[in-house]
Design a protein that fits this description.
This protein is mainly α. The chain folds into three domains: about 5-155; about 170-235, no CATH class; about 255-375, no CATH class. The chain is about 55% helix and about 5% strand. The chain has helices at about 5-10, 10-20, 25-35, 45-60, 75-85, 95-115, 135-155, 170-180, 215-225, 225-235, 250-265, 290-305, 310-330, 335-355, 365-375, and strands at about 180-190, 195-200, 210-215. It has a three-stranded antiparallel β-sheet with strand order 1-2-3. A hairpin with a 4-residue loop joins β1 (about 180-190) and β2. α2 (about 10-20) packs across α7 and α12 (about 290-305) packs across α13 (about 310-330). The relative contact order is 0.07.
Length: about 375
């Protein structure tokens, strides 16, 4: 076959160019080109498989109904695609119906040819060592015409944005609308080592903002793959971080001391409340005095299973925490991850100092949530 595959059957390449990130299609296309150029005997299988891959891709793109069978035939796949594209096969309804019916028959023909003539057809021994040029053109042009029809119909359909492999620039009109109608706010969460981006669209209130938390690895991987590799290369010369060097301390006291130091070191990256405020207190008469009883009951009944054996220590912990909240409950502290992180660290330090039996640092998130519900986010 002297002419290139793209010259006689351009729809195959057109499908690949439409979905450049569809690896299955790309691999099928490369195999098909190689087989075509070498007069390989697996041309029927690859032609049929490519057509089916196009059908599956469009069904996924549109989020359309799939075939009922777990092993659908080419005809069943094509029927689902035509339904999804609004090209139903209604016999006798005008010229288009006849064209669609013809394409269905072409798909059936490909299926039968593959079953009979293919070198690896359904376990049968192929009786052709090589496919003639004439036969190859029949197989290719049949599939090419079907794919061309599908792509033409697909041009008028909006893909499912949740599943599509289309590149972002395909949705330029939607991108412009989002870019013009949104406000962005970004900060870095030092505790979780993540970029926090909040997107506020239209008339949304700050409470309704969409929050994205992106660690460095995901940011680099999706936006700049070369930078991702460069960072990996740079880290090869850096010793593992302390948290990666797991060595169990000899006694529990050493573990707690080490953990407390780690909390203190972490806090250095952000301004912390005054140390004098983060300590257990016997009495508290500050701004949140009316919350003391409710927080005490929460700790006793929800976290300590109703045991009041450490009632005095719990009250000291509650008083100290509420006193610290006078500095921690700044404007929007509930919405700002960095400010909530300060509250979380203050709770952990108080727990470490107070050493209440049964109350662990793992309970800090429950206490944070109680404070979120009980204390307004504006000082």
């Amino acid at each position: 076959m002297s002419r290139a595959l793209d010259d006689i059957a351009p729809a195959f390449r057109a499908a690949c160019e439409r979905w450049p990130n569809a690896q299955n299609l790309q691999q099928h296309y490369n195999d098909l080109v190689r087989t075509y150029e070498e007069n390989g005997s697996s041309l029927i299988e690859l032609t049929k498989s490519f057509l089916e891959a196009v059908c599956w891709t469009i069904l996924c793109e549109l989020g359309a109904k799939r075939p009922n069978s777990s092993t659908p035939t080419t005809t069943e796949l094509l029927s689902c695609v035509l339904d999804a594209l609004g090209l139903r096969n209604q016999r006798g309804v005008g010229p288009l119906g006849k064209v669609i019916s013809g394409h269905n028959k072409l798909a059936e023909g490909l299926n039968e040819l593959r079953n009979q003539d293919g070198s690896v057809a359904h376990g049968k021994d192929g009786f052709l060592d090589a496919i003639s040029s004439c036969h190859a053109r029949v197989y290719l042009l049949s599939a090419d015409s079907i794919i061309a029809l599908i792509l033409s119909a697909y041009d008028g359909k909006e893909p499912n944005l949740l599943t599509t492999r289309e590149p972002p620039d395909r949705f330029g009109h939607l991108n412009e609308r989002i870019d013009a109608g949104c406000a962005l706010n970004a900060e870095v969460d030092m505790e979780e080592s993540a970029l926090v981006v909040r997107v506020l669209a239209g008339a949304q209130t700050p409470d309704e903002a969409i929050e994205l938390r992106v660690p460095p690895s995901e940011l680099l991987y999706h936006l700049d793959r070369q930078a991702y590799l460069s960072v990996l290369e740079a880290l090869r010369e850096v010793p593992p971080a302390e948290w990666e060097q797991e060595s169990e301390p000899a006694v529990k006291g050493e573990a707690e001391a080490s953990e407390a130091v780690s909390e203190e070191e972490t806090a250095l990256s952000e301004p912390a409340p005054e140390p004098a405020k983060i300590q257990p207190l016997d009495e508290y008469e500050g701004r949140y005095q009316d919350k003391a009883s409710a927080l005490y009951e929460f700790v006793i009944h929800n976290l300590l299973n109703g045991s009041d054996a450490q009632a005095r220590q719990v009250l000291q912990f509650v008083n100290g925490l509420l006193a610290a909240m006078e500095q921690l409950a700044v404007v929007d502290w509930v919405k700002r991850p960095s400010e909530r992180a300060k509250v979380r660290r203050a709770i952990k330090r108080l727990l470490s100092i107070q050493a209440l039996e049964g109350l662990e640092k793992e309970h800090s998130e429950s206490i944070v949530q109680w404070l979120v519900d009980a204390i307004p986010d504006e000082a």
